[in-house]
Write a structure and sequence with these properties.
The chain has 3 helices and 8 strands. The chain has about 120 residues and is an alpha+beta fold. It has an 8-stranded mixed β-sheet with strand order 2-3-4-1-5-8-7-6. A hairpin with a 2-residue loop joins β3 and β4. The longest helix is centred in the first third of the chain and has 12 residues. About 20% of the residues are buried.
Length: about 120
């Protein structure tokens, strides 16, 4: 499995103030979308999320988002080494993702940019 990078997941109360800060910090504009009642802004390596506390509580359990070349390949590699895929692969606005529980209890999201799948 080829890992292309990681994204830090940050739950925020004031999305607009946070977007302004991270856009200024990185010098890049936010890519915005909504998912399951949560407003999301992707800025550089930061993924800002704001919404109902019940939804954010679930999102906080995921330590980071890991970009991979292919989610199906990641699924096979994770399963082979003992991780449990708890959700996905599923389509997202930017490609596909899955959520995996590692044997040490860590939870990570794996995403690809394979939008043709």
């Amino acid at each position: 499995m080829e890992i292309l990078g990681t994204t830090l997941r940050i739950c925020v109360d004031d999305l607009e103030a946070s977007v302004a800060f991270y856009e200024g910090l990185t010098g890049t504009p936010a890519l915005r979308f909504e998912r399951g009642g949560v407003s999301v802004a992707a800025i550089g390596c930061f993924l800002l999320m704001s919404g109902p506390e019940a939804e954010l509580e679930v999102l906080r359990k995921v330590s980071a988002t890991i970009a991979v070349k292919d989610v199906d390949e990641a699924h096979a590699a994770l399963t082979r080494v003992g991780a449990k895929v708890v959700a996905g692969p599923l389509p997202t606005p930017a490609g596909r993702n899955l959520i995996a529980l590692h044997p040490d209890g860590s939870v990570f999201e794996y995403v690809d940019r394979n939008v043709s799948a």
